[in-house]
Amino acid sequence: MEIRLHGRGGQGGVTCAKILAAIYAREGKSVQTFGDYAGERSGAPVRAYTRVEDGRITNRNKVYRPDHLLVLDPTLLGDEVVTGLKPGGTLLINSPEPLETHRARFGAFRVAVVDATSIARAHGIGTRSVVIVNTTIAGAWAKVMNVPLDRVEEVYRDLGLLSNFPAARDAYESVRFDGAPRAADATAADAAAPPAELPKVEPLVEHRSSPPTPLKTGSWRTQTPVYTEHLAPCSAWCPAGNDAIGFVQALAREGEEQAAAVLGGTTPLAAVCGRVCPAPCMEGCNRAELDGAVNIRGIERWIADHVPVARRRPAACADSKRIAIVGSGPAGLSAAYQLALLGHAVTIFEGEDQLGGVLRTGIPTYRLPREVLDREIDAILALGVEARCGEFLSRERLAALAEEYDGLILATGLQKLRTLAVPGADLVGIEQGIRYLHRVNLEGGAPLSGEVFVLGGGNTAMDCARSALRSGADRVVVAYRRTRKEMPAIREEIEEAELEGIEIEELVAPVAFHGDGRVAEIEFAEVDLGEPDESGRRRPLISERTFRVPCDHVLLALGQSGDLSLLPEGWELAEDGRLVAPDRAPVAYAAGDLATGDGTVTHAIGSGRRAAGLLLRALGFEAEVFERPDRSKAVPVTDIRLDHFGRAAAAADRHLPVPERLNGFAEVNRGLADGLEAHRCFSCGHCTECDTCLVYCPEGIIRRRTERGYEVDYSYCKGCGICVTECPRSAMEMQSS
Ligand code: FAD
Predict the structure, then answer these.
(1) Which of 116, 416, 544, 709 has its CA 20 to 30 A from that of 525?
(2) 141 beta partners
(3) 737 vs 309 pLDDT, higher one
(4) Of 161, 159, 92, nearest in space to 125 by CA
């Protein structure tokens, strides 16, 4: 039996021929196998041969009249490839196309088809750019030729290829072909087409020389490298939709002016977010796998502290609309910014005397200095946004606004505070944490003394505790019903709180307060953790085991929810944030925590931006609507060539020493010392013109363009994929040519 294989350099055709020989050698046959190639590189057509005999094999020619043929690359298929194949001989093709397609073309043979490339790719055989199909297609061959699968497995074990056996098994199971395998019984006279006459070899002529001719690729190449842009995880992870890789790279390569301009496209609150954001972008950062995530939050702050980001001028709008925004937290401010930039007339209604929402009423100044907040709010107002503070709207006033204005955005946050229904909850000295923070932030401070217990585990709890410590408390304890690990507060806030001397009491729940008019003791029950609840956290189970502790003040930080009682009669909040009314539908959307309950500043910014887009669409504009990117599309760390990057520890934010912090409300986190941290960015999925492709190209056919980027001389490119494999940041890919 004579078998011929056709493949391309890089697909492993010669090894495939060897595997077939090994299979028959195990049956006790004589076998012979060899490849027919010279210096071909990846992509060049390659042939390989296998002979199988009961007796001794004496023929050492290539195989010109094969009984069977394997084609490892469907782009090679053609009359030349099937030349000499005997009628009825098996033609096994690696192809994603259906059997019928090939049968119609090669009816004289017994056609078998398997999508070996997809199978091998699914099993990760080969490199990112070149899939090696040999061990996969050999599995299909075994099925077509009735070779038992366990024999194939034995051969793979012998050859050290066992890790590829699952792919062979998949091919064995998925190959499609007609009829039972038959012996190759055709004679030379039946051959479909006689092999072409071999070209005559000219005698060597001495002393003849000619300059080397450049070898164009011709039909060899089946895929070409192209420069592409892929989604970076930092950008994919940002709920505000910031182009995180864009501003980090802009800082690294062009400077802070350009970086600020990138930030200003999506957010007016970069200096705020650079201070209070939990930084999901850093959770996504691929550099975490090497030596620590890039300090993207620190970079954002550094840029925004040096160059204000909201410096764009409003566009002229011929059909400018009047839009009312209720609530001036990050969601309302973000919506106002986007709408004003597009030339609409925006009025913000705010119940408090100043704009900012929780950024002003909740987050203390040691985390967010008010001059930073004011600076960013002023830039939004400078776009022509009108602010009407001190107007806490009723539901009637809201209904009237919907009539008065072309569109309405409701961004009132979470106004309902959770209370504790336990004995003694109305004793003096027990206060809602949100109210306490309001006093700290807006009413000239809120001194207290003695032992303060803060009940809860979120950001409000940490802000209450750290503010209480700065306001005169002797001892502050945060009591939480789960463990530290499950606390919803930002990790750094918990760490900073503990560093400052705040104690954390885990697994306790208050069941009563005791005191004579004023709280003097809290009675806690010990908590056991049960099965996980809907949030995925283990459910707290309050036990009968109780104990009492003395205390002077209690601050409740038990959570908040949206207050929909503000909605006028019949209005409802739909899932997409639209506010629906039964009769005359207002063009109105909810945004921020009220709409999503996400509970972070960055989410509120993204939500405000999205609501602005949706509102404009509803008003008939062709507006862009912000959609959160699909994280699964971001460049995974496995596509980053970590070996191309030197190790460098992340630049840390500078902090005020602990003893200096507790004297007042001075800002604790002082940010980065410089912007050099931006240079640690891998630039995942975005070309930085690092020249790696150019350096590694074996043909030397990648050139720098005069302006930016590179060009590949495709007439000489063999599609070897080395440039793609070596690209450190996955900014190239192979595409079918
Ligand atoms: P808000 O910021 O709540 O703003 C709503 C505004 O609407 C308020 O100004 C309110 O006065 C106004 N309003 C309400 N009703 C009316 C009405 N009827 N008429 C007129 N005005 C009205 N997130 C982080 O990412 N990082 C943090 O460090 C952080 N710390 C936090 C600390 C505390 C103490 C709290 C409470 C929250 C914290 N959060 C933090 C969460 C974050 O602040 C919120 O998710 C975010 O502010 C929500 O923005 P928003 O615009 O939806 O609403």
Answers:
(1) 416
(2) none
(3) 309
(4) 161
Give the tokens for residue 389.
Answer: 């503070």
Rounded Cα gap, residues 318 and 167, in angstroms: 62
Strand partners, 579: 573
Atom of ligand 1 nearest to the CA of 273: 25
Compute, in angstroms, the gap from residue 357 CA to the centroid of ligand 1.
Answer: 5
- The residue nearest atom 8 of ligand 1, judged by CA position, is 357
CB 112 within 8 A of CB 176: yes
Q: Residue 66: phi, psi to the nearest 5?
A: -70, 150
Question: If you take atom 9 of ligand 1, which residue's CA is the nearest one?
Answer: 357
Give the count of alpha carbons within 13 A of 406, CB side only: 17
How many other β-carbons are positioned within 10 Å of the β-carbon of residue 122? 14
- 217 in contact with ligand 1, CB cutoff 6 A: no
Same fold, 2-216 and 421-561: no
Task: Kindly indicate the confidence band of residue 45, based on its pLDDT and cuts at 50, 70 and 90.
Answer: confident
Residues 429 and 399: their CA atoms lie apart, in Å, by 39
Residue type, 196: A
Q: Which ligand 1 atom sits nearest the alpha carbon of residue 332?
A: 51
Structure tokens at 519: 């709280």
Report the distance separating Cα 459 and Cα 301, nearest Å. 20
Q: How far is the CA of 64 from the centre of ligand 1 (A)?
A: 79
Yes or no: domain 421-561 corresponds to CATH 3.50.50.60: yes
Residue 113 φ/ψ, nearest 5 degrees = -130, 135
Range list of β-strands (E), 153-249? 176-177, 223-227
Q: Is the pLDDT of residue 187 over 50?
A: no
- Our mutation pick for probing the ligand 1 site, out of 412, 431, 490, counting the most ligand atoms within 8 A of Cβ, is 412
Q: How far is the CA of 495 from the centre of ligand 1 (A)?
A: 23
Per-residue model confidence as pLDDT tens digits over 52-107: 999 999 998 999 999 999 999 988 888 889 999 998 899 999 999 999 999 888 88
| Amino acid (one-letter) located at 338 | Q
Of 667, 605, 606, which Cα lies nearest the Cα of 358?
Answer: 605
Neighbours of 536 (CB within 10 A): 7
Strand 386-389, strand 475-479: pairing: unpaired
Question: What tokens does 377 get?
Answer: 């709010």
Could you tell me the two tokens for 11?
């697909």
- The DSSP string of 42-102 is TTSEEEEEEEEESS-----S--SS-SEEEES-GGG-SHHHHTTPPTT-EEEEE-SS-HHHH
Q: Give the residue extent of every domain in the chain.
A: 2-216, 322-415+572-618, 421-561
CA of 111 to the centre of ligand 1 (A): 68
Task: Please say whether the beta carbons of 647 and 290 come within 8 A.
Answer: yes
**Helix H or strand E segment including 396:** helix 395-404
With a pLDDT cut of 90, the percent of the chain lying above it is 82
pLDDT in tens, 596-654: 999 999 999 999 999 999 999 999 999 999 999 999 999 999 999 999 999 999 999 99
CATH code reported for the domain at 322-415+572-618 = 3.50.50.60
Q: Quick check: 184 pLDDT over 50?
A: no
> E strand or H helix at 134, and its extent?
helix 134-144
The DSSP bridge partners found for residue 702 are: 712
- Does the structure show a pLDDT above 60 at 191? no
120-162 per-position pLDDT tens digit:
999 999 877 778 999 999 999 999 999 999 999 999 999 999 9
Rounded to the nearest angstrom, the gap between the alpha carbon of residue 518 and the centroid of all alpha carbons in its chain is 52
Summarize pLDDT for 380-410 with one digit per residue, the tens.
999 999 999 999 999 999 999 999 999 999 9
Shortest-distance Cα residue to atom 46 of ligand 1? 601
CA distance 368 to 269: 12
- Output the CA 272–ligand 1 centroid distance in Å: 13
CATH topology of domain 2-216: Pyruvate-ferredoxin Oxidoreductase; domain 3 (3.40.920)
